[in-house]
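My current task is to audit a protein record that another person submitted. I need someone to confirm that the token line plausibly describes how this chain folds. Take the sequence as given and treat only the tokens as open to question. This is what I was given:
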Amino acid sequence: MIAETFRQNDLLVFQEGRTLLNEVHATAFFSGPTKWFFSSKFPLRDRESRIIGLIAINEPYEQVMGQDAELNQLLPAIQLITKKYSEKIMIADLAELCSLSESHFMRIFKQRMKMTAQAIIEQVRMYHAIKAIKSGTQSIALIAHDCGFYDHSAFVKRFKKLTGTAPMKYRKDCQANYETNRAIAIPEPLPGLTAR
């Protein structure tokens, strides 16, 4: 899901020549914690003004947060979403955690994070669900529930919209790709043989 978001953003730059400024993205590597980045992308043009690439600048969220009091005020909500994504998260609770009224919190959050708090909650949940579906053997329903999606049909619909395929097919495709890549791996040389 994270990769798909990056791909969609790249297409906006390549196809429409748009500049994307300070978009918030969650990333995670292997089993490490989710990390947040501000990402800006600019089209790279040749002399005839054709788009031939893009320039991306990523700043760790913590660095940006430390420089901006308003963003810094949102940090408790971001940390709670990152750590407790599987639990029921109420916008009112996030606002209270940041010492803001609910309406003020929603306005500032969307303005500064470039998406709603609910969208970020879903992004984090979907990231973990996709990761579990791709690499695990648990039922799709259990994974969805464990990642904070309590309506299974709504989860499947959202998953399809995001990935273009149903969760079970996504898992089968990932496993088939893994098996194919494993089958064509270059074998290790036999002991005692050296390249000349």
